[in-house]
Amino acid sequence: xxxxxxxxxxxxxxxxxxxxxxxxxxxxxxxxxxxxxxxxxxxxxxxxxxxxxxxxxxxxxxxxxxxxxxxxxxxxxxxxxxxxxxxxxxxxxxxxxxxxxxxxxxxxxxxxxxxxxxxxxxxxxxxxxxxxxxxxxxxxxxxxxxxxxxxxxxxxxxxxxxxxxxxxxxxxxxxxxxxxxxxxxxxxxxxxxxxxxxxxxxxxxxxxxxxxxxxxxxxxxxxxxxxxxxxxxxxxxxxxxxxxxxxxxxxxxxxxxxxxxxxxxxxxxxxxxxxxxxxxxxxxxxxxxxxxxxxxxxxxxxxxxxxxxxxxxxxxxxxxxxxxxxxxxxxxxxxxxxxxxxxxxxxxxxxxxxxxxxxxxxxxxxxxxxxxxxxxxxxxxxxxxxxxxxxxxxxxxxxxxxxxxxxxxxxxxxxxxxxxxxxxxxxxxxxxxxxxxxxxxxxxxxxxxxxxxxxxxxxxxxxxxxxxxxxxxxxxxxxxxxxxxxxxxxxxxxxxxxxxxxxxxxxxxxxxxxxxxxxxxxxxxxxxxxxxxxxxxxxxxxxxxxxxxxxxxxxxxxxxxxxxxxxxxxxxxxxxxxxxxxxxxxxxxxxxxxxxxxxxxxxxxxxxxxxxxxxxxxxxxxxxxxxxxxxxxxxxxxxxxxxxxxxxxxxxxxxxxxxxxxxxxxxxxxxxxxxxxxxxxxxxxxxxxxxxxx
Length: 694
Known about the structure:
Blueprint: E1 2-3, H1 9-22, E2 25-31, E3 34-42, E4 53-58, H2 60-65, H3 67-96, H4 104-117, H5 123-172, H6 178-184, H7 189-202, H8 206-219, H9 223-231, H10 241-252, H11 257-268, H12 283-294, H13 298-303, H14 310-319, H15 327-340, H16 343-354, H17 361-374, H18 378-390, H19 395-401, E5 413-416, E6 429-434, E7 437-440, E8 474-476, E9 479-482, H20 488-495, H21 497-503, H22 522-535, E10 542-543, E11 549-550, E12 555-556, E13 564-565, H23 578-586, H24 602-610, E14 639-645, E15 656-659, E16 676-679, E17 688-689
Helix pairs in contact: 4-5, 5-6, 5-7, 5-8, 7-8, 8-9, 8-10, 9-11, 11-12, 14-16, 15-16, 15-17, 16-18, 17-18
């Protein structure tokens, strides 16, 4: 039983909480006439205050029932009272020194009581606690910032070290691994760019500096990088060309696109001057990159002009596809040149694509077939034919594609297919128009190389020398010439049984029909021309009676007349004159070989591409690259009869000129455009054949 009046204000407050929140009570209420007994239990919700109560009595059953809760509450209140006494001590220190705030365990305990008993605290206490809490927050933020800075610094240091190592690996790596090393830098482009820029600026070893430029082209490209990459084209090794391409390709795909094009064009300027100019300043590589990256053929077109050095054109054709080559880009350029009518560039691009053989079939095949059929230019037509043969298109298919392409004013080639008269069907053959020229001089371009007009009975090596520069310049009229040497198949089809008298009873071996006919003499060739003219209803070009000639002995019969040009034979098939042959072979070139001169490793790199020589046997007609006017095999495979006398100063001489090298030749000099030899018209040596003219 508790006498409420005897309690202090604080104790009464505590008693009120105990009664209202923890217990069911009974008590005596003071009235005006004295005390009245309240015997019923009073609900805590109805007891808003203790006003009027002098005593309160705890019902012992309720006390037993809630003893645990009562004990916890009293303990908690004691802790709070104890803490407030400690708080008063801290507060006294704070008044003397505002820096004396709560820390550690005391601050944690204060936060707990602050959360529960905030409304019981005085203003000064609240201010003190709030400043302590604020100081703790500042401390925590400081610690967090420090930890974050430490982690960030550690991460950046690790990233810097790793990236620096990767940059060092890039600078030292072989060319084959450059792209792999560049890919390893992809996650830190900004840092990689900074480190690469530093290496590019300070590096003195060329290979390392070049690799730094490769990295900059991908991660931090600028004009200085482009200038260096184009400058290094000159001494770029073959094994590094792909890396160079990818570096410039990366620049081309960014804001420096036009700058790349301008730099490469400038680098390629001057390529037509001479052979040494090709690799000087990396011009040839610049040409390749212009074609591959931009489809730009402006500089390449200069190589193809009639006054350009054929040596340069040949080197471009041979070397161009070996590095930085892309058949798709070349095919697009070929299509563009074909549609623009740039036949010289089309011819060169076709030869480049042909270098790829079957590799180019899937990309350029359809376009090349179209050019083979539709191009009016003889050189382009023949070049397309050669490319298709590299892609294993059969002779029968090629013949079918151009069937019916007869002579026309707007086309520099035609296919002769409709044979008239009786006898075996004549296989198709192609004639190419050779343009006229107002002044042409035969002869060597190098002193001491070629025999001029020789003396009867003297060998070529003993004959006098005539330079083209000293020879008489005379015009050459337009004429037609067969694109290939006369084949075994064509020769036998025209001569019929007479061919057996020449070659004996045995027929041609398998694979020989498409080879050039060989072992025929001058008279055999003359008779063939006349018979061929008759089969196509043309007047024979020569007056030569077959009965004046014995096929078996290969000699004129007694009283037989030597062939002469018929007065009404114009338009018939014939042998070319020597002047026509050399003019057609040169195709306006003034170098030792029609494809140029002064080559490095001529016998292995160049001659096998253009001529059949030192093979032991002839090969299929048209298997090598054609000349600019579309003629195959003029310098190799078999030597060819011409109409002219070999000894011009001897009136009664019957010896006839042979031009061009042959498959047994092992001396490159035998394949020069000016080389000439002569034999008697009866000679049937295995290396002698002929081609046709009209």
